């Protein structure tokens, strides 16, 4: 697949100038900030630089549904003991247009995912991210859809039940934002899951919004934000981790052009409104995640920069110690996960314009410079997730795309172990609080 980056103006002129047959397919990212022109002719492929990345070179499961995947979550939403795949779908100005963007859940049949999603949301809003968490304090996982798009649709919650989430939202945010990402997390350590959001505005003349936080009181999430950042900007990804070692997890955020990615301090359960640390430079960053890469008990920070960076945390002091040697960087998603179960976190990312997903193995505290494993999609890359899907207690990989094949699942090829822990298998009851 040949990919050419184009501007918003060029897209508008192309669509208004000629017949449909003369216009090349155009894909637009979930935040509307990345656009690419596609020319067919390339098949999907994968390759490994080394033999110890536990994913095959051909996907084990794919769908055949033309949607734009904005976010992914692997979780047992119906309580039957196996993990399902939750998919948030967005709408955009892509061409040819996408007809459907309801959110979807592919239920697990016991050994893998069903071919057609059993659960389809009753509403159809542009969803840039999807999260699963126990928000209303019952035993059933809830689905938080971070909505937005040019219609500025409010974020919603599909509350869980014994049979799975309701397809009809039961909670609506009251703020007006294009929400790019949601991070469920117990910020104030009161036992309830709060939700932080990364946001942007809806037009070139109104491009910015503050970050926001919705506090949860006894299982009731406020529909109005209880906190917002002093700065209005374009943010896209969030992650909680204890930068300064005071026992309270701080909020890292990646920001788009003209704004520096940084960290907001959690002061005893209350977020400060200005960052206590920034990268000091502005770039089109997208993707951020805390993980203890070197085993010193200080969380380090991966940033979807150009190139991808690792900021090592040494007793609260941050410095770049690693940069990716990959040749292209246009991030859509970034995640930490111990894919080879050797006890340290590995780094995964997916890029929009070239459609590539990379994994960098962590070898005794040092990430591989070049990608250890690459999947090259014929479409654009939009999302990534991990979790045990085929029931062997090993973390499988899901890659989301915008295109005719929008989901690709790669089963982990390690030997199943009786000692695999619940965090690595995607058990929602044992989620790590600092995983992005």
Layout of helices and strands, plus pairs?
Layout: E1 2-5, H1 8-17, E2 26-28, E3 35-39, E4 45-48, E5 61-62, E6 67-75, E7 84-89, E8 104-106, E9 119-120, E10 127-133, E11 142-147, E12 156-158, E13 171-172, E14 178-185, E15 194-200, E16 209-214, E17 216-217, E18 220-221, E19 227-233, E20 235-241, E21 250-255, E22 262-264, E23 277-278, E24 288-291, E25 300-303, E26 309-314, E27 317-323, E28 331-337, E29 346-351, E30 356-360, E31 362-363, E32 366-367, E33 373-376, E34 380-387, E35 396-403, E36 407-410, H2 422-425
Antiparallel strand pairs: 1-3, 2-3, 4-33, 5-36, 6-7, 6-35, 7-8, 8-9, 10-11, 11-12, 12-13, 14-15, 15-16, 16-19, 17-18, 20-21, 21-22, 22-23, 24-25, 25-26, 26-27, 28-29, 29-30, 30-33, 31-32, 34-35, 35-36
